[in-house]
Amino acid sequence: MKISDRVNSMQYSAIRKLVPYADIAKKNGKKIYHLNIGVPDVETPAEFLEAVRDIDMKTIVYAPAKGLDELRSAISRYYSSLGLDFETEEVAVTIGASEALLFSLLMTTDVGDNILTTDPYYSNYDSYVIEAGLSISTFPTDIENGFALPEYSVMEKAVQENTKAILLCNPGNPTGVVYSKEELERIAKLAEEHDLFIIADEIYREFIYDGRKFTSFYDIERIRNRTIILDSISKRFSACGARIGAIMSKNADIMAAAFKLCTARLAAPYIEQIGTVALYNMQNNYLKDVNEEYNKRRDLIYSELQKIEGVKTYKSEGAFYTIAELPIEDTDDFAQWLLTDFEDSGETVMVAPASGFYREIQRGKSQVRLAFAVSEDKIKRAIELLKLGIEKYKEK
Ligand SMILES: Cc1ncc(COP(=O)(O)O)c(C=O)c1O
Q1: What angle do CA 338, 386, 169 make, to 5 degrees?
Q2: Mind listing the pLDDT tens digit for each residue in 304-332?
Q3: Probe ligand 1: pick from 36, 173, 177, 199, max atoms within 8 Å of CB?
Q4: Interval between CA 212 and ligand 1 midpoint (Å)
Q5: 5-42+286-395 is classed in which CATH architecture?
Q6: Where are the domains of the chain?
Q7: CA distances from 79 to 93, 103, 229, 281 (A)
Q8: Could you tell me the pLDDT band of residue 14, with boundaries at 50, 70 and 90?
Q9: Where does ligand 1 bind, in terms of residues with CB under 6 Å?
């Protein structure tokens, strides 16, 4: 007996690789500031837990496979309020955007097909691509221009004969890039020319800074029929553990296929769907306040990074990530060293080496991804620790 080549070929995510070293450091009493992972420290709105506490069920039955009607219509209403017109029947509730991603790949490809995305990209995409038996092609995006999309010909060069879909994260993880309408138009042209689906991972859509307006792939009318929008409450409502996401599309065949996959896994969590309905029914400034809070955190991490000699970065436009190029050759080694060999007053910082997000690993060798999902106090101290760490590491 042996474990499948499929699973054996899957890598632990770039973010989780260092966890054993962090565990040992914590056991030894070191305090760690986490800039390595995008788990928001903002509280989940109380409405979620209140709704869950009010549940009066004697048996936890399966929810409908597509999701609770109440939740699907709440999501539909939320999107309508943003100008994205999805009927209830155009929404399928999934177990996080993670399941929505896997379903989207399963719906648009067959084993052996290819998916196109940016380099760098959200590293978990690799796992879903392997699970679905696919290959991945990328086109380069660069720190020099804040990871904007390259020109059309560069992207087109990466399209393979068996490419079936473009998978794009906007606002971007790990980069914080937010694409302009013109950039999305370029992708739309590519999709039309090569008859590709567009899988739009827009789960960070509320996290857009400097008062900018977010442009969704939905806003390009002529490609609506080839577009699948992925959704999640993990970041929007600071509810990563609830595991609720959604797939939305104007394409009836896509929705029929999504419902088939939903039926095959029976249901998404019932209790959490009830809590999520309450989140969508909130009548307050929660999302606006959260946006302002993250905008402040983005400003802070940018200005603190600017103070470190030899660090190259840019002003992240969305999500809660930024990539920084450090005056260090190998950030995999550096990130580990920060946990095993460095401390300042019993404290250290954990960062994600960016090589784990790149197809061409070498391009990320001197870079780290930093998540500004924690409070301003913590960001300030974490970047101070990063600065001290760089100085000490270079003396080594
Ligand atoms: C870009 C991106 N897509 C999808 C996901 C998965 O989200 P969920 O928690 O809804 O499964 C994440 C989680 O961090 C993410 O960053």
Answers
A1: 95
A2: 999 999 999 999 999 999 999 999 999 99
A3: 173
A4: 22
A5: Alpha-Beta Complex (3.90)
A6: 5-42+286-395, 46-280
A7: 14, 21, 11, 13
A8: low
A9: 38, 96-98, 122, 169, 173, 201, 203, 232, 234, 240, 245
